[in-house]
Amino acid sequence: MDAVLIMQMIMAAVLAAVIYSIIGIAPGTDETAVLAPVTLVLVLTGMEPIIILSFFISAIVAKKLTDSVPVAVAGIPGGVMSTPMVEHALVLKKHGLTDLSIRKMASGSVIGTTVAVPVSLILANALIPVSDVIKDYANPLFFFGAVFLALMTKNKILALASIIPFALLIQGLRHLYWGVGVVPEGTNVFISFFLGITIGPVILTLFELLNKDKRNSLQRFGKKDITYNKKNRYKGIPNPFKILTGKELLSSSFTSLIGSLTFIMSPVGITIFLGELFTSRIKDPVKKASRAISSMDGLTNAAYISGTLIPLIALGIPLSPMAIGPANALFNAPPVFTLEHNMHHVLSNADFIWATLIGAIVAIVITYFIIVKFSNQICAFIFTRIPHEAMLGLFFALVLLLAFMDAGWINIGGVLLIGMVAGVLHRWGINYGVQFMILYSAPWIISKLVG
Q1: One Pfam family, short name please (predicted)?
Q2: What is the DSSP-derived secondary structure letter of residue 239?
């Protein structure tokens, strides 16, 4: 590895840290919707895989560091993974401790990253000897993964019942494309279907707005007043080991370790479970909220890093909610990457270590310092100057472009159909993990149904 390549990796990591610090603060920016399309575009451009991995690791660390800001300031989750922290952040806000809330969550993220990186690298290498056995059963594993994640949702029966119909929709569209000749028979349209699921809730909402009765029945809100505390600005160089108490450090480290080891499970479910478990006996509301948000933020960061690195290094197939969601382009982005030829096959163990360390360190150095010192100013700028709708519009347009590139004009209709169905399923409580697992296992499911 030469100095030029290392410099390119650092530049990519810096760019990701800046971009996703801004995106993370914007409220409601779902992790999969904002990470997957950008990563996919970078892969399809033919950029060096090690540079893309540095960019991606920096992006997820920066995104998880900054999505705590809208939670603390306005009680609005910056992404799906920050939703469980809203209740505890509002407790601190009620006590006038918004600035403390931001510092605790950001520090928890740093602890999560610090724990997850070495644990993920060690565990991934420990799984390499059995990787061939796991890959031999990849297709049924995707199906059982869909069943397992469905059982983890609140609406278990509904989630289980949706598996076969959704698989029929996906595989039915593929057979339609083969029949009309828009793609060669046997070629699975994947990327655009994946992105259709990713942005499904947005597609569903846009179609609902075309319904006059539905549009008129929507509740109207005035401008929301958000107050900032300008007095309690953090002085000195931020240090997570000083910001967190001893017990908060211990619980953040332990939940991060568990989050790394349970990489195959739903990060949201594990976050809620462990966050409540570690704080259930604390009576003081401020101490309870502080412990909860620091532990939860550490766990989510750890789950994202381990859920990417362990399947990528050990297996080369996406067998975690994170790998099958935001990180999917690192595994499967035809024609550049396929399940038989992706980063797992082209990067060495040293490459993974370098890319991970550079991405994580750059994001922490840049984003953590900025968030702790200037979170209020940044949040005020983004809330007033960067429309949330503009970001969603950009990603929606990118999805339509890639749909056209995948299978022409007919596929734009197909992606909109998948998006509407996926949006309804998501609204019913069937999370992305279940839907992505169905997408992967659809050919196997249908082959077994028809014998």
Answers
A1: TctA
A2: -
